[in-house]
UniProtKB/TrEMBL annotation:
Domain Jacalin-type lectin: 1-74, 85-218
Record-linked PROSITE patterns: JACALIN_LECTIN
A Pfam family of this chain: Jacalin
Source taxon at top rank: Eukaryota
Keyword Disulfide bond applies: no
Molecular-function GO term, any one: D-glucose binding
Presence of keyword Ubl conjugation: no
Full protein name: Jacalin domain-containing protein
Natural source organism: Cephalotus follicularis (Albany pitcher plant)
Keywords: Lectin
Amino acid sequence: WPSEYLTSITGSYGTYAGLLVITSLSFETNLTTHGPFGSLSGTSFSIPMEGSVVVGFHGTSGHYLDSLGIYITPVIHFYSALKGSVSFGPWGGPGGDPWSFKASNGINEIVVRHGGTINSISFRDANGHHSPIFGGLDPNDIGVEEKVHDIQHLVSISGTSGNYNGLLVIRSLLFTTNQASYGPFGVNTGTPFSIPMEGSHIVGFYGKAGWYLDSIGV
């Protein structure tokens, strides 16, 4: 926490050694899925917890795990009590040089170069301050430029990461404001990532970049 948190649990229950017990479990975070553990047999169960986070468990047990339940709370409650901003991520690969941009008065514009992947990204805040261009060092693959203008309130970012020209990089990005969604830019392939930010807004970005945008966090 806070870059990774538990969002749901799935599994199955059935008869084992003459007892009705939990036969398998999978744990899903905002970044990946762990499991399944045990044997996928019997009756399946699933609790999707979009916008919430698992904060505890309850149930019964004896020779085996007989039953299991969860306690949840909205994810915003976790970081609303923290002072200042909280970072999430980064997603993507380990390559490139570190970069960061934190807006002094909100992010007003995002400039993305993309083609087969996300080549580069840059920002402008509400005071007119421009960030450097992060990425885009491949001279033979500069992509096309897209601008997200007049952003009022940036509330979420989602996308995918995967292999491109032998590098693990950000393959696509989608930006959501309080008014609309922009993208996806790039190619929507690879491993998805997403951060719901209900009740909050994004004040900055960080990650790594070189020839392309290697990774990004918020």
